[in-house]
Write a structure and sequence with these properties.
elongated; about 170 residues; about 35% helix; single chain; alpha/beta
Amino acid sequence: MPRSGFPKVLVLCLALTGCVYSLSSGSGFPSSVKTMAVLPFDNETPSPELTQELTQELRKGLTSRLGLRDAPESRAHARVRGTITKYEVDIPVGFSADPSLATSARRKLQLVIDIEIVEEATGRVLYERRGLSGEGEYNERDEAAGRRTAIQRVITEIVEGAQSQW
């Protein structure tokens, strides 16, 4: 009978060890990377507002979700840079058969970027992705809502990709 409690203790120890590991894993980057600078992205699209909006949301999203602090480029441990390569709007998704509805159509947009996160001290690429895309659906005449959704999806992909590499 003394062995009957052993499996329970083993499971408890493994569970606690797993919790400690997940708490100590941090940002998904090497421990030397504590700050980052998000540089304005190059923009190859005809939508100039994208650069500022993407940069601001990346700064907020990456710092909060990766546990890093924002810093000027001269003092950052890592640098985030990239290019907005595609921004396609007004892709039809669905139409309403009822002409009395104020919103008669659903649309979607697609945002595509290339991104690179580089450790300043070593020049080592910590994360790189080409052709990363995010889509967002929106009601007709509400492109901003779709753009916010697409940007958040891109940020989620970046965070998950960065965490999986380390």
